[in-house]
Amino acid sequence: MDTPLASSSPHRPRVFIVGGGFAGIAAAKRLAKAPVDVTLVDRRNHHVFQPLLYQVATAALSPADIAAPIRSIVRNLPNCRVVLAKIRGVDPARRRLLMTGGEVEYDYLILAAGATHSYFGHDEYASIAPGLKTLEDAVEIRKRILLAFESAEYEGDEKRRTAALTFAIVGGGPTGVELAGAIQEIAAKTIAKDFRHIDTKTTRVVLLQGTDRLLPQFPPSLSERARRDLEKMGVEVLLNARVTEVTPEGVWINDHDFLPVRNVLWAAGVRANSLAKSLGVPLTRSGQVIVAPDLTVPGHPEIFVVGDMAYAKSDGTGEEVPGVAPAAIQMGKYAGRIIAAEATGRSTPADRKPFHYRDKGILATIGRAKAVARIGKLKFGGFFAWLLWSLVHITYLVNFRNRLAVLASWMWNWLLNARDARLITGDARLDIKRPRPGEVILAHEGEAERASEAQAPAPSPAQPQLATTP
């Protein structure tokens, strides 16, 4: 049975877009003037600028700086409505989109639901080693990073204090490199004067990469430059270091080396949204849909798969389209353009030209005034690469408010070497087994406080005593 989402204009094609990321938003904007009814469905009410999630995770930016409500983004698109719902699957044979509360019929469907982390068959690692794909992930990682220093401040056991000040990042792609550099900067510069009992400069940041170089998407020369820059900052880079097990006490590397660490962050792989499985078509090992040259599901020209959900090859070069924001935007625009042309009768499915990806280059930041860039045949790093990275990311933010907020935060952080979004939210329990001699750690509503044991008043016999961890 149809939900009330069925189109009120029976003569206009019904276009459903699943996902409010780069590809979904781009498709909706491209269809703004087309004679179609567009419904954008997402299980969250906001669009997130994922390339800057690591800056939320490392307290450089607040969540609102890189996100915006989807409704505000598309409010000027007269033919687009937004639905907050979870998609259960797709029935291609009946042209039905299955969602919470019922199902709807579509004329065109654009699947742009993105991807999540891949633990390569070990999903049990997720609670120990969080990945970074959503705002919730970023806030959780920020909490863990900050709590690590808070725990070390009062930890009396030397080995546990060392483990608390050790961070292991699994995966040497852009996210792993960016996290490693940012955490090292926090420890060495931002909070070095904020703690009394520990020297945060002794923090150990270990970047574990399973292959022989970092940033495999980049030319080897830039991969080597990124490695050198990270090591100069103090990051330990371990290449050919395959993580074979993750435990609460640490990680096993190549089955025989154990790294004691209480803070593990996962940046090693991605898996396409599980919605792809409901299509009943061949998928890659990472769950992507192997799309036709026009980005559609083979045998279903009305279903487009774009962004991280699609395994596509660019027309002309035959190379795989990378999972980056510019590619997702181009794919979304391409799908919207085809649907708009067919809705107006200017073309038919037989007239579709293959998708051609225009490579605008790739960028990755390493730290303060450090980045690497490949633009066409140009390969460079350092300050100018970092400046270009900053300008590109500011440009791609969805609205003026976000651009202004991020620019102001970056300028402030640059001048004062500050990260003012160092907020611990949620359950903030300290992981302390043995407090320093002479101190009692009190936990009250998630906030840690210190009191001198000598000054603590003796509890009356009628009152329960505060239990301290021995």
Describe the structure.
With 470 residues, the chain is of the alpha/beta class. Helices cover 27% and strands 24% of the residues. The strands form 9 sheets. The chain has a 6-stranded mixed beta sheet with strand order 5-2-1-9-21-20. A 4-stranded parallel beta sheet has the order 13-12-11-17. It has a 3-stranded antiparallel beta sheet with strand order 6-7-8, with no helix packed on it. Strand 11, helix 6 (174-190) and strand 12 (204-208) form a beta-alpha-beta unit. Helix 1 (22-30) runs parallel beside helix 8 and helix 4 (135-154) runs antiparallel to helix 5. The termini are far apart. Residues 444-470 have low confidence and may be disordered.
The profile of the biggest β sheet is: 6 strands, mixed
- The helix content, as a percent range, equals 25-40%
The separation of the N and C termini measures 62 Å
Q: Order of strands in the sheet with the most strands?
A: 5-2-1-9-21-20
Pick out the low-confidence regions: 444-470
Average pLDDT:
89
Q: Number of helical runs?
A: 10
* β-sheet strand percentage: 15-25%
Radius of gyration: 25 Å
Give the overall silhouette.
Answer: elongated
Number of strands: 27
Assembly type of the chains comes to single chain
Derived from helix and strand composition plus strand pairing, the structural class reads alpha/beta
Compact description:
The chain is α/β, with parallel strands linked by helices.
Tags for this model:
10 helices, 6-stranded mixed sheet, alpha/beta, 4-stranded parallel sheet, 24% strand, 470 residues
